[in-house]
Amino acid sequence: MSAIIAVMNHKGGVGKTTTTLNMASAFAAGAKSVLIIDMDPQSNAATGLGLDAKSISKGSYELVLGDAKIPDVALETDLPNVSLIPATFQLAALSSVSPDEEDPEFWLRESLQEDATEYDYILIDCPPSFGILSLNALVAAQKVIVPVQSESFAIAGLQQMEKSINDIRLEAEHDLDFRILMTLSDQNQKLHKLVNQEVRAHFKEQVFETSIPVEPKIAESAFLGRPVVVHSPNVRGAQSYVRACAECMQWIEGGERLSHQQAIVN
Ligand code: ADP
Ligand code: MG
């Protein structure tokens, strides 16, 4: 069975797509087969993998509606072991789904359950809102990675996220589990350091030990259509994503939490 992970935060620009693409690349480097599902109508996952989003005519919209199966809409990418179900602009129409529809937040889960998949990991990139698209991702997933930028009000935003995740856990009757990943972190900035400490004090082991630093190569490689883990594997930002991926694997497999040093060795 695939491990299904949603990458979600209701804020934009916090590193959701970057985390999705780099985690996927790091999983794939460990010979795991990975499917990325883009649930954000901005289609950034395709662009970040060097695909021309404008030339793509079908994807997650058809999958969610049950009009296509995974193999009909999954694209091969330049990265071995990484496939992508892209987002198209039609996906935005789902945001205004009719209130008469029964349980529309369950559609993606149903599509994934119907389709037996050969993937080890399915990563779902969410849009920056709590709407129906993110709800579909959260209902389908077993785990949620919440990328968080070290800024004021981080805790308040996270408490809101935690409440939404708890509501979905009850509604969808599943054991949805979340972890926070501190992103765009600059430890030379006092505010970042304080927020990082505050989030860790509050959410404890629900925070990845690894933080992702501000790394110019991350933005540069995204612009060139290659995740930094593949484009510049030796820079600090890439190595942080590899460490976060090792922690994530451990979390999914349900083993003991690795210490930071063990995560690096592994
Ligand atoms: P989201 O999906 O949450 O909207 P993105 O992953 O698209 O956020 O990131 C927003 C922007 O910040 C992108 O231009 C991306 O390349 C850049 N970015 C993300 N993470 C980092 C980082 N750690 N260091 C530098 N730039 C980053
Ligand atoms: Mg995004």
TrEMBL record:
Q: Does the keyword Manganese apply?
A: no
Domain (AAA) ranges: 3-177
Arranged from A to Z, the UniProt key words for this protein are: Membrane, Transmembrane, Transmembrane helix
Does this UniProt record's set of keywords contain Membrane?
yes
The organism's superkingdom is given as Bacteria
Q: What does this protein do?
A: Involved in chromosome partition. Localize to both poles of the predivisional cell following completion of DNA replication.
Q: What is this protein called?
A: Chromosome partitioning protein ParA
Native source organism of the sequence: Candidatus Terasakiella magnetica
Taxonomy of origin reads: Bacteria, Pseudomonadati, Pseudomonadota, Alphaproteobacteria, Rhodospirillales
Tell which residues of the whole protein are contained here.
1 to 266 of 335
